[in-house]
Write a structure and sequence with these properties.
Helix content is about 40%, strand content about 15%. It is of the alpha/beta class and about 270 residues long. Strand 5, helix 5 and strand 6 form a beta-alpha-beta unit. Helix 1 packs parallel to helix 2, helix 1 packs across helix 7 and helix 4 runs parallel beside helix 5. The termini are far apart.
């Protein structure tokens, strides 16, 4: 593999990299010459398959299991990744819980649901971001000035046009979005912090294939994001030295169209 000099000797940790968007993001980093730490929660077989596929691209990959609802396990995850990938230059927080609740429904918000979403979708990404900052603050001056390490938080286009569906999920992602500016200020100049908000990119829950196709077309551009779109945008942000404290919407303009329901409920 003829890897560009600007992309040599860098590694990325992608949480939730065994399946769905996380997997595609991990593979795209590998295609661009990055070594990849593949985090998974319970999907060990899928994670190992992802590692094998990355290995065929000629870069290093290793799978790491951790329950992101467990603070100690989350800290241990980062320590293990840092030991195996000391050249860690990017953290992509892709793992999340996405379970349905709505205040005015048969599935109302419960304290447990909210706490579960907040732990995995908010607390774990911020904790890992802090650990990433400490790693690079302590190694300041030991890495090439060309590389500005980054944390990329996966968000959701629905944060622009709120609707009542998926209340716990939305609250957790809204809080994570708010943290981006705060962490970007706090971690500069050692670490950049950026948000990336995809549109509907893969079927969710019990959504039918027909329903997904219809939903995917409900944007100004006539199509929302694909997993490849999101993955390529993630790699772009990892190399965009001047971008921090902001969010990139990769959704075909989906966030420009208000909706009173989550889009998946408008197509079933």
């Amino acid at each position: 593999m003829n890897t560009p000099l600007s992309q040599q000797h860098k590694a990325v940790l992608v949480t939730g990299a065994a399946k769905r968007l996380g997997r595609e993001i991990a593979l795209e980093f590998a295609r661009q010459g990055w070594d990849v730490a593949v985090h998974y929660g319970q999907s060990e077989q899928e994670a190992q398959e992802t590692v094998k596929e990355i290995g065929r691209l000629g870069v290093k990959a290793q799978a790491f299991q951790a329950d992101l609802a467990d603070e100690a396990a989350t800290k241990k995850l980062f320590a293990s990744v840092r030991e195996q990938f000391p050249h860690l230059h990017c953290l992509v927080n892709s793992a999340s819980i996405f379970e349905y609740d709505r205040a005015n429904s048969k599935v109302p918000l419960s304290a447990k649901s909210l706490q579960d979403h907040m732990q995995v979708n908010l607390a774990a990404p911020i904790l890992l971001s802090q650990l990433m900052f400490e790693h690079h603050k302590n190694s300041a001056g030991k890495t090439e000035a060309e590389f500005l390490p980054s944390v990329i938080q996966l968000l959701d286009q629905k944060l622009i046009n709120l609707n009542p569906d998926y209340l716990s999920y939305t609250l957790s992602k809204a809080a994570l979005a708010t943290s981006i500016e705060m962490l970007a200020l706090d971690f500069a100049p050692h670490l950049r912090v950026v948000g990336l908000a995809p549109g509907i990119s893969l079927p969710s829950g019990d959504q039918t294939e027909e329903g997904f196709i219809k939903a995917h077309q409900m944007t100004p551009l006539g199509k929302s994001s694909t997993p490849a779109d999101v993955a390529k945008a993630t790699v772009f942000l990892s190399l965009a030295n001047a971008i921090t404290g902001t969010t990139l919407y990769v959704d075909g303009g989906q966030h420009l169209l208000p909706s009173s329901r989550d889009v998946m409920f408008k197509t079933n």
